[in-house]
Amino acid sequence: MTTIDLPPNLDDTASVSEGLASTTGAGPDRAFRGLAVAAGVTVLVVLALITYSTTKSAWPAFSKYGSSYFFSTDWRPNSKQFGILGFVWGTAVISFIGILLAVPTSIGIALFATEVAPQRLRRSITTVMDLLASVPSVVFGLVGFYVLRNPLQDLYRWLGDAVASIPLLNRIFGQDGSGISLLTAGIVLAIMITPIITTVTREVFETVPRNDKEGALALGATRWEMVSGVILPHSLGGITGAVMLGLGRAMGETIAVTLLIGAVANPEITIDVLSPGEAMPAAIARKLPEAAGDFRAALIGLGVTLFVITMVVNVASRRLVDVVDRRLKGAA
Fold first, then answer.
1. Which fold has domain 47-331?
2. CA 150 to chain centre
3. Where are the domains of the chain?
4. How confident is the prediction for the chain on average, in pLDDT?
């Protein structure tokens, strides 16, 4: 038997990197790697520059007003008093309403499209969701203002009268029935983010292995048991990502909220969702063109605060998903 001596650079001790370097495609591979690294670094640099420039512009308000800027509800530009807590509360309330209404609806539509609907109807649902996700936000705002406002006004008055004698509910659903309120803004936000959450969630559901679903059904599980025991646990991380994407859209929405929330000059913390209020993006869009000095710095500080809140929410959601995934894998 004839033996063949391998070249020294191809013996068993050669590293993978040396083997790649010896191939003709090493140059394009290195170029692609450098391009990918440059793109990632560019994103980080742009993010750092945005953070630096906005924080620098808002710093006069941060340094002058200190903790009262973040924890006070007294927003009176004429008196040089700037407390943003009312704006933060309004943003949180309408975002919570939007997520509360949109997430169950989105998950239901995604499950129907992937597990129940026939193929032709499935394609129609996918097309409609993709189209709705691309509709500009100002269109949703106009629909809410001209189409939903009057019916909701009648509904709010009926709801306020119905719960007038019920403790706590009469504080959540007060007697204000103008149709321009925190709840109206939250409802329109829910309509806006439902296509986004639905599209991402549907794609996540389609990644669940068919063998896992068919195995659960073969073992005698009902369709709901298969959904709750196989599809939802497998898709938890993707669903959370979809919800965070929708939450980011809801927290940063400007035009639709500006039209529907009510534009209160000095918003307070209230649990009455039928009352008008104000949100951080809407306040910036409404007041920044005429602002100067400390007023301008305070408005830019609203943007910086919104950015920080969004980052904290995203980091916390990722940590939560990691914890749940580890527990699920440990249980399995």
1. MetI-like fold (1.10.3720)
2. 28
3. 47-331
4. 84
